Amino acid sequence: MRVNRRTSTMVAGAAIAALTLGACSGSSNGGGGSSGGGGSNDEVEVFTWWAAGSEKAGLDALVGAFEEQHPDIEFVNGAVAGGAGSAAKDLLQSRLQASDPPDTFQAHAGMELLDYINAAQIEDVSALYDEFDLREAFPSDLIDLLTRDGQIYSIPSNVHRANVMWSNSAVLEENGIDPNPSYASLDEWFEDLDALQDAGVTPLSVATAWTQVHLLETILLADLGPDAYTGLWNGSTDWEGADVTAALEDFERAMSYTNDDRDGLDWPEATQMVIDGNAAFNVMGDWAVAAFEEQGQELGTDFAAVPVPGTDGVFDFLADSFTLPTGAPNPEGSRAWLETVASLEGQTAFSVAKGSIPARVDADPADFSEYQQTAMESYGQDTIVSSLAHGAAVPVSQLNAITDATSRFTSGAADLSTFQSELAAATATS
After folding, report:
1. Would you put residue 225 in left (φ > 0), alpha (ψ -120 to 50) or beta?
2. Of 55, 84, 200, 389, which shows the fewest CB atoms inside 10 Å?
3. Are residues 148 and 183 in the same domain?
4. Pairwise CA distance, residues 108 & 21, whole Å
5. What pTM did the predictor assign?
6. β-pairing, 43-47 with 383-386?
């Protein structure tokens, strides 16, 4: 896998892009997590939000690689469940402020790390890049994106694509729609969504607030194109402009095709609606591929996975990575975990299970599914932009404000004009 050299469209988050890895699953290990004051030298508390579906499968695979590489160090599960990590992030911030950090924690690539960096809550891990020979294992462009003021603050475990549209081939075919659809524009897609809605089929499944922000970013990308989309985050695109208004109108239209119970669901349930034939389409990152594959679904036969209409040739980028918190109780345990995260074995095991692709250039495409091979190819040649919903494009505080504004809009508590103004205000803060 090689990284696209056309990185001029990478968002402001690219300047910071310290990729951060998603987290673990399940309840806390019986040994208990390390808490403030120091823990045992033969254990490592890994704080994540991976608790279900392909995320849990990915974590379990990574833990398996860790236990093979470091059998003398006990993995302690510090997972906190919750869609997109909202609950985990709140608890993590409380622990960091109380000087009670885990040994390592997950965060998404990009601007999501800025608050931790500014608060001196995570340490430079550049020395580990030299120790683990990562400057050769990772593409130079990726190293550049990870570097802030000459320092690197996390080690990426993978790369994900956000702008993927999933569909149930049988549902489409039953309604006279190409079972392997390809749309040049949102308008073309909306025509088929209208037909599905008229036929009594749920056209588009979504879930709780963060999945609606995920849909929003792909609509913005489709309508604005990669340069203007990137401009939303670096200040060169006017949030109050007519082009943005039109994109928000398309988002409003897209939401009109969605399921009424969306706010009570998380992404696995929305994806499952497509797998079960209870919805035709879903827009979700490519971690969703594992949900299809583990249920015996075949790409091109049972389901399709293509770029969101209007975004072909663009790779909406996010990634998971792990950090070294300041004052980590067991820095040697942290180092051991980061070594596995960076290793070919760890990255391969993790991505095979999670549906992502490795950040390393020496991964063998033959080890991965058909979808993942297409993602590797796209990542190497498409224009790359940074995901809003997944920490690459804006700091956490801005994302929270955008999410709140989106929830007010999709619940009917704010009109489109107010929504647009609130988005402009959210991105004007630092």
Report:
1. left
2. 200
3. no
4. 6
5. 0.81
6. unpaired
DSSP 378: H
Interatomic CA distance for residues 224 and 109, integer angstroms: 23
DSSP H or E stretch at residue 59: helix 53-69
What is residue 99's three-state secondary structure? coil
DSSP of 179-230, one letter per residue? SS---SSHHHHHHHHHHHHHTT---EE--SHHHHHHHHHHHHHHHHHHHHHH
Statement to judge: residues 154 and 97 lie in one domain: yes
- Domain count for the chain: 2
State the Cα–Cα distance between residues 43 and 53, nearest whole angstrom: 26
67, 32: one domain: yes
**CB count, 10 Å around CB of 429?**
10
Q: Residue 378: give its domain's CATH number.
A: 3.40.190.10
Predicted confidence (pLDDT) per residue in 88-120, tens digit = 888 999 999 999 999 999 988 778 888 899 999
Give CA–CA dist 223/245, Å, rounded.
10
> Do 55 and 11 share a structural domain?
yes
Give the torsion sign (CA, 252, 284, 23, 106).
negative
Tell me: do 19 and 102 sit in the same domain. yes
